[in-house]
What does this fold into?
Amino acid sequence: MRRGPSAFNIISVVLGMAFLYAPILILVAYSFNASRLVTVWGGFSTRWYVALFQDAQMLDALWVTVRVGVISATLATVLGTLAAVALVRRGFHGRTLFAGSLYATLVMPEVILGLSLLLLFVSVGLPRGFWTVTLSHTTLTLCYATVVVQARLRSFDRRLEEAAQDLGCPPWKAFVLVTLPVIGPAVAAAWVLAFTLSLDDLVIASFTTGPGATTLPMRLYSQVRLGVDPKINAVSTILIGLVATGVIAAYLLQQRTARRNSPAG
It folds into this structure.
């Protein structure tokens, strides 16, 4: 006879979920606060969303952040997928050195990474701006995308790809038509993770940014130092919605792929 969850387990889960999500829910709720004081509830209102869409500097920073996130996450996911394929395939003699150099950014402090990238851009004469931030975020998120895709490729049955090649399919086509659809949920999860990390970054962007490339975390940090503006709650809620949408989309894609590959399906 199976027993249900104990009261201790239920309380632990509730407290854990409250610890993780209560601050986010409070932030979302206060984004609809009519009062200018962010800690005093003054009634329901959307005035700060209206004020946000009238703030040209904040919208410009948000647009820069989204563009940097989309481009850097896409580059990191493509390069990370190729790197993961190279790491799991046999016959790659420089695997240890390649993996070590790739995973170095996982343990390297962001201050050191940002300073290193700044010195690199200065030495090659690349003007700091939108593309230097994008390349920096690609460097930051590449290893994370590689780890996610590599974990899925380790359980992938290579015989499926080999069967396609035996039937005359070129290796690149076998990867695109056979391997990529199977690891699609992992690739999507890697993209969402890379995009989220790009949205969150402040340190590296501070080192590598230039005129006209101020990201939203930099804008929020500069405003918070002068006082908390209720518009910060509104723009943070919008970012939470973007990330939540991406996570839900990746989850639905994973479930759809799992049902398609299940024997019953």
Observations:
- The radius of gyration is 22 Å.
- DSSP finds 13 helices and no strands in the chain.
- The first helix runs from residue 7 to 30.
